[in-house]
Amino acid sequence: MWATRHYMRLLAVAALTCGLGGAYEGHRAHAQSSSSGSARIVAVYKISVGSFNLGNFRVTTTVRGDGYDVRGQGRFSILEGLIYSWNGTTTSRGRVTPEGPEPSTYAFKFTDGGKKGESLRMTFNDGAVRSVSITPRKRQHPRIIPVTQEQLKGVLDPLSGAFLTAHSSNPNGDLNVCNRTLPVFDGRQRFDLVLKPKKAVMVHNKTRGAYAGPAVICRVKFIPISGYHPDDPGIRHLTQSNEIEVWLIPVKRTQMYVPYRIVLPTPVGYGTAVVTSIQVSGSRRASID
Fold first, then answer.
1. Exposure of 242 by Cβ count < 10 A (0-12 exposed, 13-18 middle, 19+ buried)?
2. How far apart are CA 128 and CA 150, in angstroms?
3. pLDDT tens profile 207-237
4. CA distance 138 to 128
5. N or C end: fewer C-beta atoms under 10 angstroms in the chain?
6. Residues 6+ apart with CB under 8 A from 139
7. Assigned domain for 189 exists
């Protein structure tokens, strides 16, 4: 039972932050002026592991001028919480620069089973992590690989990495958005996500409000750097896996690509996060050009 709960919590955190999606192409990105208006993207994801439907989470991305705000909220359970329950929220704020998204704050809060909980807040300055606050503060295991200040320069939080870095002027499924490496820090762990193109596909969906259209499938390699226990079974499993995938889809009226489907193998079955609906509003034609 401990192993099952461990991996379900791992999937819930990964799904809510969408930390396995995104790509970056800094030399082509530039922020548009505030006169270009705003855009709001609301995506709802269904989360499953094995044969269990955990629940849904909603991610709302708002871009105004060169500023952005990304918010995610999820509530997951099995058998109405008798076996497993988890509730979490996360936010990321910052601005788009010629080098890509520059986060200013990141926050993540969750409760597990209504008993245990945690609140994390992270701030950035000059492209590097400035401070991290975690409540309640727990004693760190002595074998945790320490995170150095040098490793915190030029990193992204999971939300900005997933929703504000993949872009292309090709709305028909550009595999180039898969050929990237994302440097990520989630407040505890520093890791790289190495994306490589697999193939372009068409999503056929007749459900009203669901996405149908082109998508690109990226292979994802999880590379832990610091902030983790070498014997952590979840980290070891992710590191050894060659089956992690993220599907990216173009967002209409923008040049953004966002996660459509995340596949995360675990010892208790494949974990998946799949878009059930996506809505775009606002006059902004391209939040990242």
1. exposed
2. 9
3. 776 789 999 999 999 999 999 999 888 888 8
4. 24
5. N
6. none
7. yes
- Range of the structural domain that residue 93 is part of: 2-281
In a domain, 287, yes or no: no
Identity at 247, one-letter amino acid code: W
287 closest CA partner among 238, 261, 254, 264: 254
Express each pLDDT in 81-129 by its tens digit: 555 577 888 999 999 877 778 999 999 998 876 667 889 999 999 889 9
Domain membership flag for residue 46: yes
Whether 223 maps to a domain, the answer reads yes
Contacts of 278 by beta carbon, 8 Å cutoff, 6+ apart: 41, 42, 43, 44, 211, 249, 251, 258
pTM metric for this prediction: 0.83
Residue with tokens 């991996």: 7
d(CA 216, CA 206): 19
Domain count of the fold of the chain? 1
Residue type at position 83: I
**Full DSSP string of 92-136:** EEEEEETTEEEEEEEEEEEEETTTEEEEEEEEEETTEEEEEEEES
d(CA 119, CA 87): 12
The residue to which tokens 């505890």 are assigned: 188
